[in-house]
Structure formats: structure tokens, C-alpha cells
Request: fold
Amino acid sequence: MTVSDAASGRIGLSNLPIAATRPGADRAEVLASFFQGLADPSRMRILELLVERPRTVSELVRELSLAQGRVSSHLSCLRWCGYVQAEVEGRFNRYRLVDERVREILTLGEAVIRDNADRLTSCLVLANEDA
Reply:
């Protein structure tokens, strides 16, 4: 499957701007991008909070103790990647999960962590990627 297949709506990403597509990207590249969207602790925490209930940027800023610009940047990434969407409520945008399967992914991730936490936190390959 190519990104253009994804942009056509076959995997739920029909809201991507044309400029965002990478013609010829294969399934593995798209899958890696999917997980890269989750590869930030702040984005993971935002998703965990949105699993509980929809929230505004102000609520997320307060609960995460991050700058508003940082939260907005992470939300922009999560929107672009198709994890969340914003709904206008008066003066505010309220963010929510786009797909309930994201909740399942987070739950499955927690189960894998429980079984592999020592290995995940000691992985030298991932440690070198952060450097």
C-alpha cells in the first residue's frame, strides 16, 4: 500500500493534504510513520488524557504543565497523523481521539511494557538514536 492509497481514504487518512503525501512510500514506511507519531512522551501523555475524555488545549496545558505552544505543536502532529481531531466549541477547540482503535493500541502497548519494561529501558539501539 502506498501513501497515495492512504490519502484516498483506504486506511482512514483521507484528510491529508496532497503536499503531505510521499509518492511511492511503501507499507513499511507508512507503518513506521504511524509509530513515529507515537514516539514522543508528551504526545503519548496527550493521547492518554484524550482516552479519558475530550479536552481543550488549555486543559491539556494545565494537566501536562507544558507551554501552550508545545502542546499545540504536539496536537498539530497528532491531527496531521490522524490520531486526533478538533471540534469547535465556542471560542475553543476540543480535541478527541479520531479512532477508538488508538485506545486499543495504547492498552496493548501497556501490556507489552509490563512484560518487557527492563528490555525496553535498556535498549542500546534506541538510546543511541536519541543521542
About this structure: The chain has a mean pLDDT of 83. Residues 61 and 70 are 9 Å apart (CA to CA).
